[in-house]
Design a protein that fits this description.
With about 80 residues, the chain is an alpha+beta fold. It has a single domain, classed as Rhinovirus 14, subunit 4, CATH 4.10.80. Helix content is about 15%, strand content about 25%. Strands 2-1-3 form a 3-stranded mixed β-sheet, with no helix packed on it. The longest helix has 9 residues. It is elongated.
Length: about 80
């Protein structure tokens, strides 16, 4: 390897939104993530609703009364 062109590999703390902290190594000193293996439904076996950036609220604000859970058969 050439000297002086590679970033420094250092200890790193990854912090999840659920509060879980994972210690590992990276070129960055710390990370923040939204979902980790301690709270992801695939690993926990529990269904968890994750609303990313208020999509449900934006949909209801935009369509509100127009959409009441109707299907094509109901129309």
């Amino acid at each position: 390897m050439k000297k002086g062109i590679h970033p420094e590999y250092q200890p790193c703390k990854i912090t999840c939104a659920c509060g879980n902290v994972i210690d590992t190594y990276s070129t960055r000193p710390s990370f923040s993530v939204e979902i980790c293996s301690a709270c992801h439904p695939y690993f926990t076996g529990k269904q968890k609703f994750v609303d990313t950036a208020g999509r449900v609220e934006r949909f209801m604000k935009k369509y509100g009364d127009k959409y009441k859970g109707e299907t094509k058969q109901d129309k």
